[in-house]
Design goal:
The chain is an alpha/beta fold. Helices cover about 35% and strands about 15% of the residues. The structure holds zinc ion.
C-alpha cells in the first residue's frame, strides 16, 4: 500500500520535471527564435551615411530651387527609395544618433545633453545595455567600421560598441581618403560601414566655389566670421538680422551640400570599382536639420519645428531599377528595425520602440518628437502638436495650410488638439529608460573632455 503510494508520488514528480524541462526548452527556443532567427541570412553589406545637420528642403532631390544634389539625383534614378516624409525624433546630434542606431527614443536610451546649475552642458555616454545595430550585425558575423567627425560622435559617447574600428576624421576629404584605404586594402564582407560627417554642419566652411557655382554670386564683401558657430550662436537673439548676411550664410550651407554630394558619388564609386554594389545597400540620412532664423535662431537647438526634424532619407539598392518616392510618415526610431528586416533580411531584437516599415507596403504611423526631457511632440497626418513641459504650453499647427508653422491654432482647433494630446500622453506614460542606471549622470559627472575635444565641441557650436 505504502510503496504504491510512493511510486505514484515519484511518477507524478517525474511527470512534473519532464513538463518543466519541456516548458523551459520551448520558452528558450521561442526567445532565441525572436532574438536570433534570420528570415534569410544572406550577408547584405550596409553603408549608412549620416550627413550631420542636413535639411530636407535644401536638397535638389526634394525640389529645392538650387541643384545641390546632382549626384544623389543620378544615383537615385538608377534605383532607390526616397522618403519624402521622414523625421528625426529629436533634433540634436548626441540624442538622434543613438536613436538611429538602437531603435529607441531619447527617453528610452537616455542620451541627451543636460545643463548643471552653473549652465555647463554635459552628456552621458550610451549605456552598454543598448542593443545597437553594430552589436547585432557583429554577432551575425559582420565586420563593423565607423568613421565619424568626432565631437558628440567621439567614441567616448559610447556609440563605438560593436565596431571593430571606430575612428574620427576631420572633414569629408579625410573621411574619403581613409575609407579608400579601407575599401581597397582590408574591407571584409559582410560589412557594416557607418560614415558620419560634419561637412554640412556649422562652421559652413566648405570650399566657397560650391556656393558660387550654385548662385553665380562672388561674395566679395563677406567675412569668414559669419559662418562660424560662435557668430551664429551669438546672432540667434538678433531680431533684425541683416538679410544680405543671412543669404550669404544660407548659400554657404547650400554650398556644403553640393560639395558633400560630390563625395557621395566618389564613395559610391569606390564600392562600384570593387564590384560590391550588387550586394550593398546605401542609406543616406542625417541626425537633424538646421535653422536659418525661421523661428528666431540659427543652428539646431531646443526646437521641434519642421526645419529641424523633417530630414532626408535615401536608400540606394540594386534591387530597384528606378526612383521610388514614399510619402507616408516614418521616423528615425523605425530606421534600425527597417534596415534589419527589409534591407538586410534579419529578424528584430525584442524590446525596442521602433517598428520595421515595409517600403513596398507603407503604413500610416504617428511620429513622436522629443527635446531632452523638456518638450514632446506628435506629428500625425497634417497636424503637429508640441508640448512644452516647462511652462505647460501647447502649440498646434496645420502643416498643410501653414507649412512654416507660423500660426498656433491650439485654441482655435482645441477639439482636434485634444485628440492629439491623448495620443501623446499615452506615449509619455509608456516612456521608460532602458539602459543601465549608472549611465544617468549625476549633476557633477561628465565624460572626460580634453582640450582637443572641448575645441571641437566649441567649433561645432555645442558649447560656448
Ligand atoms: Zn548633429
Amino acid at each position: 500500500m505504502k510503496s504504491g503510494y510512493y511510486k505514484k508520488i515519484i511518477k507524478y514528480f517525474i511527470f512534473i520535471v519532464i513538463i518543466s524541462v519541456l516548458f523551459f526548452f520551448t520558452i528558450t527556443a521561442i526567445i532565441k527564435y525572436h532574438h536570433y532567427k534570420d528570415y534569410n541570412s544572406n550577408g547584405v553589406n550596409l553603408v549608412l551615411i549620416s550627413i550631420d545637420a542636413l535639411r530636407y528642403d535644401r536638397l535638389g532631390i526634394s525640389g529645392y530651387n538650387m541643384k545641390t544634389t546632382p549626384n544623389l539625383e543620378f544615383l537615385l534614378s538608377k534605383g532607390g527609395y526616397f522618403f519624402k516624409n521622414y523625421y528625426v525624433n529629436s533634433a540634436s546630434t548626441p540624442s538622434s544618433h543613438p536613436t538611429i542606431l538602437s531603435g529607441l527614443y531619447l527617453s528610452s536610451h537616455g542620451v541627451w545633453v543636460r545643463e548643471d546649475a552653473n549652465g555647463n552642458t554635459k552628456c552621458p555616454p550610451a549605456s552598454k545595455k543598448l542593443v545597437l545595430l553594430s552589436k547585432i550585425l557583429k554577432k551575425k558575423g559582420y565586420s563593423c567600421y565607423a568613421i565619424t567627425g568626432g565631437g558628440y560622435m567621439h567614441r567616448k559617447y559610447g556609440l563605438d560598441q560593436g565596431f571593430d574600428i571606430y575612428t574620427t576624421k576631420g572633414d569629408i576629404k579625410n573621411l574619403y581618403d581613409w575609407l579608400k584605404g579601407l575599401v581597397y586594402n582590408r574591407l571584409k564582407e559582410p560589412f557594416f560601414l557607418f560614415l558620419h560627417t560634419y561637412e554640412v554642419h556649422s562652421p559652413y566652411d566648405s570650399p566657397l566655389k560650391y556656393s558660387k557655382q550654385l548662385t553665380g554670386r562672388e561674395y566679395n564683401n563677406f567675412s569668414d566670421k559669419y559662418i562660424t558657430s560662435e557668430f551664429l550662436m551669438r546672432s540667434s537673439e538678433n531680431k533684425n538680422f541683416n538679410s544680405n548676411i543671412l543669404k550669404y550664410i544660407s548659400d554657404r550651407y547650400d554650398g556644403g551640400i553640393l560639395y558633400t554630394d560630390e563625395y557621395i558619388k566618389k564613395i559610391y564609386d569606390l564600392f562600384d570599382n570593387k564590384g560590391l554594389l550588387n550586394n550593398t545597400v546605401f542609406i543616406i540620412t542625417t541626425d537633424h536639420g538646421e535653422e536659418f532664423t525661421e523661428h528666431g535662431s540659427f543652428l539646431h537647438n531646443e526646437k521641434l519645428y519642421e526645419e529641424l526634424v523633417h530630414v532626408p532619407l535615401v536608400v540606394l539598392s540594386k534591387k530597384l531599377d528606378k526612383r521610388v518616392d514614399i510619402r507616408e510618415h516614418l521616423s528615425s526610431v523605425d530606421l534600425m528595425p527597417t534596415i534589419l528586416k527589409y534591407f538586410l533580411n534579419y529578424s528584430l531584437p525584442l524590446d525596442i520602440d521602433g517598428k520595421a516599415f515595409n517600403p513596398d507596403k507603407p503604413d500610416v504611423r504617428p511620429v513622436f518628437l522629443e527635446m531632452r526631457d523638456l518638450k514632446r511632440g506628435l506629428l500625425y497626418n497634417n497636424h503637429k502638436l508640441i508640448y512644452n513641459r516647462q511652462n505647460n504650453e501647447y502649440m498646434f499647427f496645420n502643416l498643410l495650410n501653414d507649412p512654416e508653422e507660423k500660426e498656433n491654432i491650439y485654441y482655435k482647433k482645441q477639439k482636434l488638439a485634444e485628440k492629439y494630446k491623448e495620443i501623446l500622453f499615452k506615449k509619455i506614460k509608456r516612456e521608460k529608460y532602458r539602459g543601465d542606471i549608472k549611465y544617468i549622470l549625476k549633476p557633477d559627472e561628465d565624460v572626460e573632455k580634453d582640450k582637443d575635444h572641448i575645441r571641437r565641441l566649441k567649433a561645432l557650436g555645442y558649447i560656448q
